[in-house]
Amino acid sequence: xxxxxxxxxxxxxxNGAETTSGIVAxxxxxxxxxxxxxxxxxxxxxxxxAGTTVYLVRAADKDITCPGDEQWDTLICLQLGxxxxxxxxxxxxxxxxxxxxxxxxxDTTKSGEARHELCEExxxxxxxxxxxxxxxxxxxxxxxxxxxxxxxxxxxxxAFAALGFDTKLERHRTALEETFGKKKLSVVExxxxxxxxxxxxxxASSHAEARTARPPLFATEPKAKRLLLRGNDAIFLxxxxxxxxxxxxxxxxTPASDVLLRNEEFxxxxxxxxxxxxxEIAALGSVIGAACGGALAYTATSGPGFDLMGEMIxxxxxxxxxxxIFDIQRAGPSTGMPTKTEQSDLSxxxxxxxxxxxxxxxxxxxxxxxxYETARAFxxxxxxxxxxxxxxxxxxxEGYQTPNYFDYAKLEPYRNFFTNLRLPPQEEKFYPFAxxxxxxxxxxxxxxxxxxxxxxxxEHWIDGxxxxxxxxxxxxxxxxxxxxxxxxxxxxxxxxxxxNEEAAIALMGWGNTKGALLEAQERLTASGLETKVLHYxxxxxxxxxxxxxxxxxxxxxxxxxxxxxxxxxxxxxGVMGRMGVACSEDRFVEINRYDGxxxxxxxxxxxxxxxxxxxx
Length: 616
Known about the structure:
By secondary structure, the protein is α/β, with parallel strands linked by helices. Helix content is 39%, strand content 18%. The strands form 4 sheets. Strands 9-8-10-11-13-12-18 form a 7-stranded mixed β-sheet, with helices on both faces. A 6-stranded mixed β-sheet has the order 2-3-1-4-5-6. A 5-stranded mixed β-sheet has the order 15-17-16-19-20, sandwiched between helices. Strand 12, helix 15 and strand 13 (388-393) form a beta-alpha-beta unit. Helix 5 (144-163) crosses helix 7, helix 6 (170-180) runs antiparallel to helix 7 and helix 19 (514-526) packs across helix 22 (601-615).
């Protein structure tokens, strides 16, 4: 089995680490591998001398949806070292994340052969290539900035040769063409020539003689039709297939800005409208207006912007307007760490806004789920006439994965729902907030003949007109909240159970912990420990009946999440406690990470084994 991680590091915005990692990811992808790409970059714009960034490309011949462990096989350092015998800082900053015997590829043109104590301790293979010299001899007269970036092709070629991967560069050419496009074929050809120079330099070095033979990595053609896609891309794509006009309004914020950019590029009249607003409050306000007018309307933001939307989310709920809000989580509070991942907005989503009002909360776990759950979010918003909050994370939203081609047949129920959505007949008296057993009132849009109505954010009666009558207040509050009970009965799913439902040990998580949970389960199974993974997409309404059945007889549950306070664990304990299932600390163990990095499978496995050893 192949499962391999190659890291590309450099000074932020100086050495082209992001573009180079994208080319490497596409090369592995075109070789038939499953790929995850994740960027660990700075929250400042320019890195300076010590401001380094690293992009990980993990490739495997099995399904993967997380970056894996911070133990890398190869590091390509793009920064040009200038001190004799000393590795660049963008290499030394990451040596402690390398596997024993890993390969470090770097440019020796200015520094010469280098050494570092960690290299000796970890038995790392230092592969020095004089990339700048090679570029200078191959393309004399290029300006310094271009030369600095052209070195990357040489270093990538040398790394491929050291790995015994794609040494004919057939898939690498495809990746270059997809990156630079047909308009820049000269750039493709230059990169191809330089990659060959890198292969030749490696072959001529002493490293080639010492390298142990290894089979080619991912030499077979892809067995399934797959995509190389980010979560943000999936969020943009899904509503385009639901058969209604799409309206997007947003304000730029990391890591949600790409949803805005994709919409600005592709969601244009006559099929849709995209607006960049002055702030997040205005963004959600315009989304409410567009949804009121009949469009599939949504916005995407991150923690600080989500905070600002609190009052407007309540406004949408009391008006019973179908809006979808994506909170792509990053480390907080306040500005926090804008370019680091976290799962710390769950409590905020559950409680945002003053007063009491219904909202639905979903938390897809990977890129594939981002596509399908986005479509489902619009369906739920329109069926129940309320806000749907989708909790994503930087790790998945900005990270690339390789899902199978999307099955558009799975969207047919949602398309049919919107196609068959009928406005009230003209001859009927229309009440926008009519009392019903389900809590769902009939829907219409302004301008529909014969349906004059009033909408306002003040408490109201069935005709929309202001009312402070005590009995009517109780009736309207109960009516709105009944929609959650209806949703719980008709549409709430999960948790999804992976493994034997009767297993006595459970791994539990929500959202983007899914990939790490499944990999931890795979390793535990190999060691003889049977577990079940319970992964939650549906957070509110909470699937309490199925959860009770799955957890009431377990011996140990390990709840994994990316925050310090154990927000999901606390929420679970509250809901289950009301159902008579005690989630005591001796039986429900929390595994938390909150340093801005993704959950690693090894952290889960090590913590579980530690606890189980104490038990036995």
